[in-house]
Amino acid sequence: MQAVCNEAAQLQTPTMIFTAGQIRAWDQFTIRNEPIASLDLMERAATECARWLEDHGYADRSFSIFCGKGNNGGDGLALARMLSAKGSVVTVYILEFGAKGTEDFQQNLARLHGSPLTIRFIQNEEHFPAIPSEDIIIDALLGSGLNRPLEGVTAALVNHINSSGNLIISIDIPSGLSADKSSSGNVIIEAAHTLSFQCYKPAFMVAENESYVGQVHILDIGLHSGFLLEEAPAFHMIDEVLARSIYKPRKRFSHKGTFGHALLVAGGRGKMGAAILAAKACLRSGVGLLTMQIPGHALHIMQTSVPEAMCMTDRNEHMHSAPPNDLTPYNVIGIGPGIGKEEPTARMLEMLLQHIRKPVVLDADALNILGTWPHILQLVPPGSVLTPHPKEFERMFGRTGNDFERIEVAVKQASFHQVVILLKGRHTFVASPSGKAYFNSTGNAGMATGGTGDVLTGIITGLIAQGYGPEQAAVLGVYWHGLAGDLVSGFYSQEALIASDIPDALGPALKKLLDG
Asked: Whole-model pTM?
């Protein structure tokens, strides 16, 4: 993943995610402290866009470049000049409302005089062009300064561009898309590629914007690294730099007791696969000892499938009905995969939480029980990790209208309950009790299959047993889990990936992480 700036790359700084307001402040910090004129900073941005187009084989194509009259439009004008100078056929369309453009826009417009390109102004729908089918469309209409939905001629123009069938590349952010809040239901450019500057924006990380942003490419324009010492990011990206910084290498004189003892309460009639997947992943995470609490009928299944795991059986043959008598040997308890939601199992979970003071990792049916019996949620020990998918999250904390609201609720609930909430998805979101929040960078759509969440539960449980803090275990766990999934999909394809492939890929994934 591309580093946030040249100096930061040299220092191996983890990738950060800033809001639109923070990025504007970063621009101003750079202008003051480099120092550099804003027009020259715009030139850098356009140069990087032109370089990207050339590197990806687009430089010899013809272009229709749509510009607003703000600084995003100024980027588009500078790019038009550079492409024309290299021999591309370029037509510039300027959305005209009669007001003067920004100073940098006006200066870049003046620089086009004498360039062998065509400039046309769009004042109403009658001026909408018939875009040649061979043209690449560059969207430089609005950028990240947008604060309201598009309407009128602007909205109509965006719909016209989207209906063209041409390849669309957006500069900074697709026009009509808010960088920091939900744009659900709004008119937005549907880009195949988004060329954004310096760092990711929150809008790029949520599922509701997938059809607008296309593939996101972060272009380094050399914003001043000193800003990173003064401004905390809105979110952190879990990348290889961050994951590697959390990893604890083993000491030569270690023994199995050094790496903790985990208890997994998992499995039930027809769902022993969930327990097996969690157990294998927990062991592959490096835990010293693993004990499985399972229903009575499953002892033979578990001991033949995962011989490295010790087993205890519930008095009930087919479900969990009582917690273990003694919880003191265990550094952490993972609970939920495949346990079911029957009332005896819910009472078991309630009793267990009443007596445990160590962190627990709650997943799957344990979370569904919390959603059905809300009073049990109040018993969850501080420092625990909850790993819901969106539906499980909704059952516990209520319905939300969009991805941004769900993220906001996750941050608030993590702080209120003093737990880590791991909201599973394409860029799994991790909210910590301190308010610090992360998006994961690994993983793929092939992992959207039954059992992969059970694997993640096993990994995080094993990491906490080894002495990682709950936040560290969640952050390293989701990265490692996703990286293993990426290796498997690269071998089998996303379609052929199944959850049981992932535990065996954890070793190669860790080697890849540590080898860089």
From this structure: 0.94
Interior CA angle at 25 toward 22 and 27, to 5°? 115
Q: Read off the pLDDT of residues 31-42 as tens digits, 9 standing for 90 and up.
A: 999 999 999 999
* Polymer length of the chain: 516
CA-to-CA distance for 136 and 26, rounded, in angstroms?
Answer: 30
Domain boundaries, the chain: 6-233, 241-246+253-515
Domain 6-233 has CATH 3.30.360.10: no
Q: pLDDT by residue (tens digit) across 211-244?
A: 999 999 999 999 999 999 999 999 999 999 999 9
Residue 369, CA distances (Å) to 92, 265, 341, 366 in order: 58, 14, 6, 5
Amino acid, single-letter form, for residue 202: P
Taking domain 241-246+253-515, whether its CATH number is 3.40.1190.20 is answered by yes
Q: Which long-range contacts (CB under 8 A, 24 or more apart) does 356-359 make?
A: 356/327, 356/381, 357/381, 358/327, 358/330, 358/331, 358/332, 358/333, 359/332, 359/383, 359/384, 359/385, 359/464, 359/470
pLDDT the model gives residue 516: 81
